[in-house]
Design a protein that fits this description.
Helix content: 25-40%
Radius of gyration: 27 Å
Largest sheet: 7 strands, parallel
Number of helices: 23
Structural class: alpha/beta
Distance between the termini: 33 Å
């Protein structure tokens, strides 16, 4: 069996199951073995009953106390018992499992593993796994069971079984890294790593496997960037944009003064566009630092020189917001430049008219989504493309535009605070500018880190803000309830919150599994204050500007990296009102308190990112969500900063030595999602 083998060749996978695998991007055996677990179920030592913590999946061992009861209707029967040890008694419930009365009715010691929830009468363990007799738990103690990303109809057991079969029949002896690198950086062999990432024997085994695979992922990514850099440095500037006095006048007439940092970055962009080679520049700036107006200066400069500039936004709602604000700025200053909007949801007639205005050159500034790079769009003389980090503009897009004309300048905007040492590696194909100063009129966000006992107080505070006309965000780590992860989920949370707050306050939920049209509709309604509380996953990191939103509450804050929490916090504090961010955590661990306390004391994203790097250790791989930046399969730039730096060093070595391996290296698989 080879990696290109169709997944249907694996025993037990028929047409129907293959279609389910296809939904999660798995079509071949190679896809399957690179479909890494999203987490692991860790079977740890039992804790005393008196020490169980709300919100955690924990194990207890004790005697069954009293009678086992079955209550409820025939459709939803609830089995209840009390388990007791020397420290106390804990109520345990199962749903739709009445037969347990017979199974467990013999008494004796039992070990149970399940989620601890708070009910009206105290803490309860819900729907736990049963180990009876109790010593059966010893077999699973300290093991890591893989948990995969699933779709409706595809179970974790099905994926586990398929992966086991693939690893059994696939030739994994072929080593993909040069021995010199593997030995220098003490990396595991590929055979060991691919087995260890799916079915680790213990945590140490997992760390070694993961380090090897992350290193290789980063290395191929960095080498792909170096290729792009080489191409960029050789590309002559076909669109020389000389500095224009009208830009200075435009800046003077703005209703606010640009900061020194904004002016410095604008001068760097202006110099690039007038130079002999094509611009490829990243502008890094914290949330609210004023990156958009710098992009507008670049677009206007191109337009005033008779050429075209395009701004690509990640969502239609944001594209429309950019279109409205840029059009308004130009109208206020009576600048006769045509701004065009192009999105996927426009009617065929609207699109045709937009295509015509773009092709003939009448439209000078074009704002849209991915619709900007569709085959039907022909530009007259596109000189500049402004995009954000979610839509890295890579070689393929450049080639697309080159076929339609020349090679445009590229400006990438990033609100992700990445320490400069990492940014130089991650954006190796781009020159880097930093806007490290916030406009003077911004009110600092007030922060607090609280435990779950503060939740009702937080709801009352939100209710008060809503009465004053404001709006709120609530972030949950998951879309729906999981049997293996202890965290709040968007679907249940929004339903329960709506019941709690009543019909006068509109609560809606937003998550990544929704269609883009659904997401755009909800964000649009939130922007118009038709929704007062938006319960969302981290999908709103790339959202729209809602100056009226003043409260951000993050549930299970301990499950996110600090840099990501800072990004989420940036959704509020964008208007004239005082804004607040509430980080809620069920964890009582000292390390968690120390990490989250950093957010309490600073709103400086770059300082937070540096602290995030300092505090994270390998143990944090269990429980903290990855940053999500750049869509690596395994790697996380904050978690794996040291591995990233080693991979960069290795890339230098391979290029310097002109190593034979460079000719064999496959194109980085994630390039489409990471670089573009």
């Amino acid at each position: 069996m080879v990696e290109r083998t169709d997944i249907k060749e694996i025993k037990g996978i028929g047409e129907k199951t293959a279609q389910l695998f296809a939904k999660v991007g798995v079509n071949t055996v190679g896809d399957l073995i690179r479909y890494y677990p999203k987490g692991y179920d860790v079977y740890e030592e039992a804790v005393p009953v008196s020490e169980v913590e709300e919100g955690k999946v924990q194990t207890v061992s004790g005697a069954i106390s009293g009678r086992i009861q079955v209550s409820g209707s025939s459709r939803m029967q609830i089995t209840t018992l009390q388990v007791r040890d020397l420290t106390g008694s804990l109520k345990v419930v199962w749903y739709r499992m009445p037969f347990l009365r017979n199974t467990l009715g013999k008494g004796g010691t039992v070990t149970l593993r399940g989620r601890i929830a708070r009910k009206r009468n105290g803490l309860v363990m819900e729907h736990p796994e049963i180990f009876y007799p109790a010593d059966k738990y010893e077999e699973k103690l300290d093991t890591l069971q893989p948990v995969y990303g699933l779709t409706s109809g595809l179970t974790n057991g099905t994926v586990v079984k398929a992966v086991r079969q693939a690893l059994e029949h696939l030739d994994l002896t072929h080593e993909t890294l040069p021995d010199v690198l593997r030995l220098k950086y003490h990396l595991a062999e590929y055979n060991f790593a691919i087995r260890g990432i799916h079915f680790p024997q213990d945590k140490e085994n997992f760390y070694h496997a993961r380090e090897r695979l992350v290193f290789e992922e980063f290395l191929t990514f960095i080498l792909a960037l170096r290729r792009m850099r080489d191409q960029n440095e050789r590309t002559a500037n076909e669109y020389v944009i000389p500095s224009d006095l009208r830009i200075g006048t435009f800046i003077e007439k703005l209703p606010y003064r640009l900061t020194h940092a904004q002016m410095k970055v604008w001068k760097e962009i202006e110099g690039d566009m007038a130079s002999a080679t094509v611009m490829s520049r990243l502008v890094q700036g914290d949330v609210g630092s004023g990156k958009t107006v710098v992009a507008v200066l670049a677009l206007l400069s191109v337009a005033l020189n008779g050429m075209q500039g395009a701004l690509m936004a990640p969502t239609e709602v944001l594209a429309r917001q950019h279109y409205a604000s840029i059009s308004r700025m130009l109208e206020e200053q009576e600048i006769p430049v045509k701004v065009e909007l192009l999105t996927g949801s426009m009617t065929a007639k609207e699109k045709r008219r937009a295509y015509d205005r773009i092709e003939c050159g009448y439209a000078k500034i074009i704002i849209g989504t991915h619709a900007l790079i569709q085959d039907r769009v022909n530009y007259d003389n596109l000189a500049l493309v402004v995009t954000d980090e979610q839509h890295r503009f890579g070689v393929k897009q450049r080639e697309t535009f080159a076929q339609k004309g020349g090679v445009p300048h590229v400006l990438v905007m990033s609100a992700t605070p990445i320490p400069r040492t990492l940014a130089i590696i991650l954006y190796g194909d781009l020159d880097i500018s930093v806007i490290d100063e916030l406009p003077a009129n911004r009110l600092p966000i007030k922060n607090c880190v609280v435990d779950t006992g503060y939740r009702n107080t937080a709801y009352q505070f939100m209710r008060k803000q809503i009465i004053e006309g404001r709006q709120c965000y609530i972030i949950c780590p998951m879309v729906e309830e999981s049997e293996t992860l202890e965290a709040e989920n968007v679907l249940d949370y929004s339903k329960n919150l709506q019941e709690e707050l009543g019909k006068n306050i509109v609560v809606e939920c937003l998550h990544g599994r929704m269609k883009q049209t659904q997401k755009d509709d909800i964000m649009d309604r939130f922007a118009r204050n038709e929704i007062q509380i938006l319960v969302s996953t981290t999908v709103i990191e790339v959202g729209i500007d809602v100056p009226n939103a003043t409260v951000m509450m993050v549930e299970n804050a301990e499950r996110f990296g600090l840099a990501q929490l800072h990004q989420l916090r940036g959704r509020v504090g964008r208007g004239k009102y005082q804004s607040y961010c509430i980080f809620m955590t069920a964890s009582k661990a000292q390390e968690t308190k120390e990490r989250l306390d950093i957010l309490n004391h600073t709103n400086d994203g770059f300082k937070i990112a540096s602290e995030d790097l300092r505090l994270r250790g390998p143990g944090d791989l269990f429980g903290i969500r990855q940053s999500g930046l750049m869509n690596f399969r395994l790697g996380d730039i904050y978690q794996d900063a040291k591995i990233l730096q080693k991979a960069n060093e290795a890339a230098d070595y391979l290029i310097k030595e002109e190593n034979e391996w460079l000719k064999k290296i496959p194109e980085y698989e994630g390039t489409a999602s990471v670089i573009i």
